[in-house]
Amino acid sequence: IKTVVLVILMTIMIDTVSAGITIYGKAGRKVVVGQNVDQTLPEGRIWFAPANGSKFGAIYIGQEESDPRSGFNSQGLFITIVYCPHWQVEINPDKEVLFGNLVEHIMETCATVGDVLALNKKYNLYDLHYAQIMVADKGGQCLIIESNSIVKPQNGFLAMSNFYQSNPELGTNGQLRFNLATEFIKKQGVS
């Protein structure tokens, strides 16, 4: 994957849409993620949380007076959360309930996509009744966890916007920019 392609894509998407898209790709040993965020949300900020005891350090991205929406941790794990139409999470009575902010919890405790999958198996991730998350690690693993589904990369990349790929009939906000982004990447010969 050529970093230039993703930078150009993200610039195009920022100028032409009012909501975000996230893209992941891997080429050899390089992992690339790119994201733009909603233009209508002012006062973006970046803040740092140092490692503390067993908690990993992290760089968070979000808006003033809000929970983090994206970040990278000291172990090389990337996360972003994207809001989507409501989708009822199937509560599993055999799983624990995860309290607190999902993005922060993952950044503080998970080093790999495998760790996030283990967390998903242990807890009911109730925050995902209105959102989905994309995680990618420095080893090149990536996936999207939706309310009741997991989406994996196809053709060497993964894109995410404000709809559920496994259940688009819940709402298609973001599907046009998703289609534009994925077609653009395919035309660049990324695989």
Quick take:
This protein is α+β, with helices and mostly antiparallel strands and 191 residues long.
Give a description of the structure:
It is a single chain. With 191 residues, the protein is α+β, with helices and mostly antiparallel strands. 24% of the residues lie in helices and 29% in strands. The protein has 4 helices and 12 strands; from the N terminus they run αβββββββααβββββα. It has helices spanning 3-16, 102-109, 113-122, 175-187; strands at 21-27, 30-36, 44-49, 58-63, 70-73, 78-83, 96-97, 123-124, 131-136, 142-145, 150-151, 157-160. A 7-stranded antiparallel sheet has the order 3-4-5-6-9-10-11, covered by helices on one side. A hairpin with a 5-residue loop joins strand 9 and strand 10 (142-145). Helix 1 (3-16) runs antiparallel to helix 4 (175-187). It is globular and about 45 Å long. 34% of the residues are buried.
